């Protein structure tokens, strides 16, 4: 059995049609009991942007994505040990962090926050990636 499970594989040609990219990626990788979730933004898995111009709404969609990806990997939000949050304007810190905090209440991960000049698409105002470690005693849904 392979050690790594790749979740929601895709090619960047479809994800970024406005760019000349051709990379094979996935939304999450489960390696043993560790789950690495790719940076999530305010776009749902059908490619629809949620919250144009609204960093808090984009954060809400990003966290919905994170939750779904962790569940698909056989994990959940309580297993998150590290978050990295990127915002394109320091004024977005409060709405983004308030929203992320709602999803991670009682989890206590370590967190890094960065203000960046831009993300991969100009309409994206925030992005969050996470690392989760599934406890050995966890009896949740196993990854496919």
Automatic annotation (TrEMBL):
It comes from the Bacteria. One of its GO terms (molecular function) is deaminase activity. GO terms for cellular component: cytosol. Coiled coil: none annotated. InterPro entries: RutC-like_sf, YjgF/YER057c/UK114. PANTHER family: 2-IMINOBUTANOATE/2-IMINOPROPANOATE DEAMINASE RIDA, PROTEIN HMF1-RELATED. Belongs to the RutC family. This is Enamine deaminase RidA. It comes from Pantoea latae.
